[in-house]
Request: fold
Amino acid sequence: MIKLAKFVLAVQLLGAVSAQAANIAVVAPKVGAMAKFGHQLTEGAQTAVDEINKNGGLMGEQLNLITVDDRCEDSFAVSAAQMMALNSSEEDKISLVIGPYCGNEFVRISDIYAGGKIARIVPVPLGKVQYGLDKPGLVKIGGIMSEEADTFFEFYQQKFSGKSVAMVYDSALAATAETAHRVRELFNEHDLSGQIMLYDAAGYAENYETAAKEILLNSQIVYILGSPEATARLAQKLQEEKQNTVLLIDEYMATPYFFREMGNFAEGVYVLAKEDLKDNPTFTEELVRLRLAGYEPRGLGVYGYAAVRLWSEMVRRAGSFDFGKVDAQRNGKQFELPWGKVDFVNGNALQSSGYEVYQIVNGEYAQVD
Reply:
């Protein structure tokens, strides 16, 4: 399986690079449950590449975007990193990697890219351990996943104050556990510990019917964090057990699989997602320009776009594509991102775009005031 993965990736890379361009790779899923997010990232990155090339390129060079489908599988992501890091050919060398979107092997992959002197920008939210990792060339602009907890708690106080909450998470997924425990901390800090109960989905061994019945015995609001498949199955059982149950999920669980499994039950579900930035005044002028060029940013598309623009500005300030010179821009500098002026310390963006609450209405996301 690993040999096949390496062969497929080698064909993708060697067939895509250009001797006349600086190469950028987006590592993200093209198939499977998470494919829509991979497509959004790639679309946004390609838009930035096209824009830069149309205006004369970067440091006199055109940019070339390569997409690598890691299928959200660790072995593929590691294989891709190893191949790119070992590629010493000047014409084939990758200057920037955006992603990968999925990252259970985050530390190992970070070591590989740093060793290969390849700049890397992660545009998606991370767990605390991942966010705290500092490696040469590594830049993180998506913030911390547990920040979602603060948005949920504020929304709860505004709309559901006094109601009991079931916080469902999967202990096998570290970032979901972090968010769940942060939610409980917020309830405790506000003397509301009696209003929340935590449920570890792993403890039910995929017996979603039993889980749904137990959860609904004590809760009026259910906030689910887990894999897309598990989230959809539990949400479906909850709605079958008690129609119009108030459900909240994370955007990355709202995959096509979720909508297919839920059917009409998806209507009215609340979704916590990274801000889409369409209403952010800082991004207005840029958004108008993108729309005039025929591109409508969707979801993570803005973050893929921002990653390429950020790296290009780092290169311009460094006056070179040299890894060390570009790496020096990661610390103590300020850059303009779609959500405003952002300070960077050891590659971490100190101001993230934050989260918003949406509701599924007629199959689309409607922002909740």
Notes: DSSP finds 13 helices and 15 strands in the chain. The domain at 164-273+356-367 is CATH 3.40.50.2300 (Rossmann fold). Confidence is low (pLDDT under 50) at residues 1-8.
